[in-house]
């Protein structure tokens, strides 16, 4: 009987350890993982009225990222995370008081806006008569730990910054481009039908030393009328980062040989003036494109391109600042 007690304690301890490991392997922690996905052809998800897609080999591809709660064991043991995954703090994914479900719903709204803007940019580049009227820069969310949190609200529409008109996202970026962290910025905005002037202090960008940011997530507010019907459906994929591949595919379906037989992956938020804005999860997107055998990966110039090159391996990275520049870059690729 005396010998059985240590054995019983050992078995109990092993069982308890097994339960702890099982819970750690299955229960989610508060933070998130960005996990790579492969690149997907856009052609099956885009339909343009009067389509004239030249077909042939190659194609335009978009790439997305799975965002999910990290499991406790993955948090404690990084080698258990999927290849190319990154641990991301919860406040980067969701705004204060916002649930993950809310963020998914917002991402789908962002996707819908991105589809409209991409269609307008591509159709206009194709010579069609597109009517657009930019209304300002919509504030989608405000970081909790920046001075702007006391001044701005989700749903505000910024129309002037530093005395300059800012009806597009690009105009807002140019208006704030010369500021240093800590500088104050006077904004004019619309809120609930009223025009307000507000002063905000800028902060240092977390990913670029010396760069000043307001600490807000923004989108284009505009009225757009297209001359032909364009349908885009990526199912449950959300966010604005597929704007560039959308625009490239729509332009291709107007009868233009965009890819030259190459498998062209692309990412980037497309803006109403054709500029290409930066996106999140660029490390994971680069991993995804690498695994998909693409010939080239078009990415926003700047920090996105620098990150993509770090993880590119033998993948060719082409940084672009605008839709026009993307088309020109593809024209110079060797034909297949």
Strands, helices and their partners?
Layout: H1 4-26, E1 28-41, E2 46-48, E3 59-71, H2 72-76, E4 86-88, H3 90-93, H4 100-125, E5 131-142, E6 157-161, E7 164-165, H5 169-176, E8 184-191, E9 194-201, E10 203-204, E11 212-213, E12 216-225, E13 230-232, H6 243-252, E14 263-266, E15 269-270, E16 276-277, H7 282-291, E17 296-300, H8 303-310, E18 316-320, H9 323-331
Helix pairs in contact: 4-6, 7-8
Notes on the protein architecture:
This protein is an alpha+beta fold. It folds into two domains: 30-130 and 228-331, 2-Layer Sandwich (Ribosomal Protein S5, domain 2), CATH 3.30.230; 133-222, PDZ domain (Pdz3 Domain), CATH 2.30.42.10. Helices cover 31% and strands 31% of the residues. It has nine helices and 18 strands. The strands form five sheets. Strands 4-1-3-14-17-18 form a six-stranded mixed beta sheet, sandwiched between helices. Strands 5, 6, 7, 8, 9 and 12 form a six-stranded antiparallel beta sheet that branches. A two-stranded antiparallel sheet has the order 2-13. Strand 15 (269-270) and strand 16 form a beta hairpin. Helix 4 packs parallel to helix 6 and helix 7 crosses helix 8 (303-310). The longest helix has 26 residues, at 100-125. The radius of gyration is 23 Å and the shape is globular. Residues 14-27 have low confidence and may be disordered.
């Amino acid at each position: 009987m005396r010998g059985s007690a240590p054995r019983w304690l050992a078995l109990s301890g092993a069982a308890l350890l097994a339960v702890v490991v099982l819970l750690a392997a299955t229960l989610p922690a508060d933070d998130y993982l960005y996990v790579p996905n492969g690149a997907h052809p856009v052609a099956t998800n885009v339909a343009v009225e009067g389509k004239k897609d030249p077909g042939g080999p190659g194609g335009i591809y978009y790439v997305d990222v799975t965002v999910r709660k990290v499991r406790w064991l993955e948090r404690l043991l990084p080698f258990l995370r999927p290849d190319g995954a990154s641990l991301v703090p919860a406040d980067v994914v969701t705004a204060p008081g916002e649930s993950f479900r809310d963020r998914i719903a917002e991402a789908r709204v962002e996707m819908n806006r991105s589809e409209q803007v991409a269609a307008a940019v591509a159709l206009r580049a194709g010579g069609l008569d597109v009517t657009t009227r930019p209304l300002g820069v919509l504030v989608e969310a405000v970081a909790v730990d920046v001075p702007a949190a006391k001044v701005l609200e989700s749903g505000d529409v910024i129309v002037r910054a530093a005395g300059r008109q800012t009806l597009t996202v690009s105009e807002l970026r140019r208006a704030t481009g010369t500021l240093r962290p800590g500088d104050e910025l006077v904004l004019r905005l619309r809120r609930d039908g009223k025009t307000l002037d507000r002063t905000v202090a800028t902060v240092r960008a977390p990913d670029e030393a010396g760069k000043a940011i307001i600490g807000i997530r923004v989108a284009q507010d505009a009225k757009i009328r297209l001359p032909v019907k364009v349908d885009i459906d990526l199912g449950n994929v959300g966010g604005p980062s597929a704007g560039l591949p959308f625009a490239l595919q729509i332009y291709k379906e107007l009868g233009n040989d965009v890819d030259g037989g190459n498998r062209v992956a692309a990412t980037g938020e497309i803006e109403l003036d054709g500029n290409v804005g930066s996106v999140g999860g660029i490390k994971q997107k680069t991993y995804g494109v690498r695994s998909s055998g693409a010939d080239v990966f078009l990415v926003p110039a700047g920090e996105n391109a620098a990150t993509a090159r770090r993880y590119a391996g033998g993948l060719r990275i082409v940084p672009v600042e605008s839709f026009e520049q993307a088309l020109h870059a593809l024209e110079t690729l060797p034909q297949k």
